[in-house]
Amino acid sequence: MRVTPQGLYCVPGDFFIDPARAVPRAIVTHGHADHARPDHDHVLASDATLAIMRTRMGEGRAGRTQQVAPMGEVIHHNGVDIRLVPAGHVLGSCQVVLDWQGSRIVISGDYKRRPDPTCLPFEPVTCDVFVTEATFGLPVFRHPDPADEIARLLHSLRLFPDRAHLIGAYALGKAQRLIALLRQAGWDRPIFLHGALLALCGLYEGFGVKLGPLEPVPLPQKRGAGGLLAGEVVLAPPGAEATAWVRRLADPVICAASGWMRVRQRAKARGVELPLILSDHADWDELLATTAEVQAPEIWVTHGRDDALVHALALRGIKGRALYLLGRGEEDEEPAAEPVAEASA
């Protein structure tokens, strides 16, 4: 593998993994925009990732030719054996396993280790080189039990029945996981969605992920009127709380679901009343456990706090290398990353 301005490049296979700009041949680990870029000539990915790319980019920009790689099936290309295995990050997310001349490298993309009813769980693969993220690569980041965070949300709903609860949740992965966790906790009422979340929730349903009754946030009967959805759960992209759109809701409790809510200053800066620490990435302990589990003598770190992780790996006798790939982590899990159209429902 070679690090190039476009991203990770497999020399014998002549393809890129999650390239940052359009290339002739790309393997895409998942549908977040810092990994899935438009206008490649040929894209190989899981069926769900390709569907997500078409939904977000349009058919014409999701790869001029598109090749579905079924999970676990080996694809031979230029002497390289390519296999996709689940990464546990979002629907369709994969690790890329490459075997060539007796050596194996695994590019994990983004991943989490917690159970998630909306996607397949992470599958560890032993290898010679493991390429990991480090979004939450500091010891301070130890994610709580998601069930406890949902319990805090349900408690607030009981405490403030006259207020809507507006939760900022990233449109791909976080929103659907939050809905599924609420359903597991017994919330069977309709969940109301900002218009920017509707298409991807529908896509999840199309792939067999049951999300229960979902409704678009209604328009007020009179222009400028508010007071809607008291006692209900409303999901919107991060940033919606700062737009005029929010005025239609009944005195909303501003919530945000993100691993970054562990940092109180982030929550305070955004005016978040109820921070929910709910991440789709591995925390510090899970990063270390994963790097031990795959038994790789060499670990490459693509983004996040690579310095802390590389140091911790060195203490364990593992060679670490920071790759400094451009464009990683720009969108996923970033609290204010999702663009919001105020007119959207």
TrEMBL record:
<keyword id="KW-0436">Ligase</keyword>
<dbReference type="InterPro" id="IPR050698">
    <property type="entry name" value="MBL"/>
</dbReference>
<keyword id="KW-0540">Nuclease</keyword>
<dbReference type="GO" id="GO:0016874">
    <property type="term" value="F:ligase activity"/>
</dbReference>
<keyword id="KW-0269">Exonuclease</keyword>
<dbReference type="GO" id="GO:0004527">
    <property type="term" value="F:exonuclease activity"/>
</dbReference>
<keyword id="KW-0378">Hydrolase</keyword>
<protein>
    <submittedName>
        <fullName>Ligase-associated DNA damage response exonuclease</fullName>
        <ecNumber>3.1.-.-</ecNumber>
    </submittedName>
</protein>
<dbReference type="InterPro" id="IPR026360">
    <property type="entry name" value="Xnuc_lig_assoc"/>
</dbReference>
